[in-house]
Each structure stands twice: as structure tokens, then as C-alpha cells.
Amino acid sequence: MAWACSATSNERLVQKLLQASIITKERVVQAMKTVDRRDFCPRDPYEDSPQGIGYGVTISAPHMHGYALDKLEPFLEPGMRALDIGSGSGYLTACMASMVGSSGKAVGVEHIRELVDSAKRNLQKNHLDYHQLEFVAGDGRLGYEKEAPYDCIHVGAAAPVTPQSLISQLKSPGRLFIPVGKEDEEQWIMIYDKDEHGHITETKWLGVKYVPLTDVENQKKIYG
């Protein structure tokens, strides 16, 4: 079902994701309609599969972005703060910015400077008014302490183990959505919830296959 949502327009893509119950919340529907994938994906933007954007990096399939936004929606209310690690094209960060609104803050961290610059250009196509959004170059494994704590954190690459450094940057309450597992082993989307007392619960949710969360030197060495 998840991989059957390809479409020929952004409007139709969102409709298919909704019909497939991948997205279930109206605020997610509106955000994904507002932020057109065509502005962030150089080819086949409405194909429900990952698309390369250079340096061994992909923009995730639309259904994975839909899943992430739907799971994080309670922590993307207007005025909240969100962190997107491995922001790549900038698409998901823009969706998060749309949801937290002008009174909130969405930060995209990407370790490849060229992709940070590309994401900024992508945003300028139709979202010059998104002053609540910031793209920065940095090591996403460390989070982004400057704007912490965050109501939610999304990670678009797989960490080998539970990322304590990111959990520490969550608010209480707060939620982290991240693939966990080594590149050649099983990977799962893990959802870490921090309650109002700082206690952590984890949910092993969905089997996936993501590129590893690594450093920029290793990324460029492997992928050029």
C-alpha cells in the first residue's frame, strides 16, 4: 500500500497518501499540500520512491515523509520547535516549518554544505516568507544545541545505536523519530518519547532501509 501512492501532481500525491491512511491528520495534509515536492526534488517528485539528490543522499519516498509528519504532528503545533537532521533537499524541514508556523522554529541540519545551499535555493522558489526556518551545516549526530530543546526531532539517516545526544535535546514532553540499525543489518524506525518528568519510552515501529548517519568526510569519500 505504502509504495502505491505515486501520482502526477502534488495534490493527487497527498490525496493518495490520505486514502492509504499513511497520513491521517488534517494539519499534515495541509502542510504537504502547501509545500510542493517539485520545488525540492529534481526529478520524479511525485514518484513514491526515494530520489537521488547527490552525494549518496536521497529525498525519502513521500510515504516515509507522510509517516514521519503524522507521527510527529502532536509535537508540531504552532509555536513549537522542530529539528530535522539530515535535511537534504529541505522538503521535510519546510513541511515542519509550515506546521509550527511563524511563532515556531524549524531547523534543518545537513553535513554537506552543497546540500544546505541547495535547500536554501529550493525554499526561495515559493517560501520566501518562512522566516521560522533555518538550514545549517553541521554534524547531525550531535544535534543542534544552539536552538535546543526541541518539541520533536526527525532524523533522515540510520543511527547504529540509540542516539542519547539527540534524546538529551528533547523537551519534556518531546518525541524523536529515527531509523536505528547498522547499514548491513536490520533497521527500524524507533520512536522515543520523553514525558513531562524526563522519562523515556521507546517504540520499535517500522522496518526500513536508510543510508547511515555519518560524517561528511566519510560521505564524500564513499559517494564523491
Automatic annotation (TrEMBL):
<protein>
    <recommendedName>
        <fullName>Protein-L-isoaspartate O-methyltransferase</fullName>
        <ecNumber>2.1.1.77</ecNumber>
    </recommendedName>
</protein>
<dbReference type="InterPro" id="IPR000682">
    <property type="entry name" value="PCMT"/>
</dbReference>
<dbReference type="GO" id="GO:0032259">
    <property type="term" value="P:methylation"/>
</dbReference>
<dbReference type="GO" id="GO:0004719">
    <property type="term" value="F:protein-L-isoaspartate (D-aspartate) O-methyltransferase activity"/>
</dbReference>
<dbReference type="Pfam" id="PF01135">
    <property type="entry name" value="PCMT"/>
</dbReference>
<dbReference type="InterPro" id="IPR029063">
    <property type="entry name" value="SAM-dependent_MTases_sf"/>
</dbReference>
<comment type="function">
    <text>Initiates the repair of damaged proteins by catalyzing methyl esterification of L-isoaspartyl and D-aspartyl residues produced by spontaneous isomerization and racemization of L-aspartyl and L-asparaginyl residues in aging peptides and proteins.</text>
</comment>
<keyword id="KW-0808">Transferase</keyword>
<comment type="subunit">
    <text>Monomer.</text>
</comment>
<keyword id="KW-0949">S-adenosyl-L-methionine</keyword>
<dbReference type="GO" id="GO:0005829">
    <property type="term" value="C:cytosol"/>
</dbReference>
<dbReference type="GO" id="GO:0006950">
    <property type="term" value="P:response to stress"/>
</dbReference>
<keyword id="KW-0489">Methyltransferase</keyword>
<keyword id="KW-0963">Cytoplasm</keyword>
<comment type="similarity">
    <text>Belongs to the methyltransferase superfamily. L-isoaspartyl/D-aspartyl protein methyltransferase family.</text>
</comment>
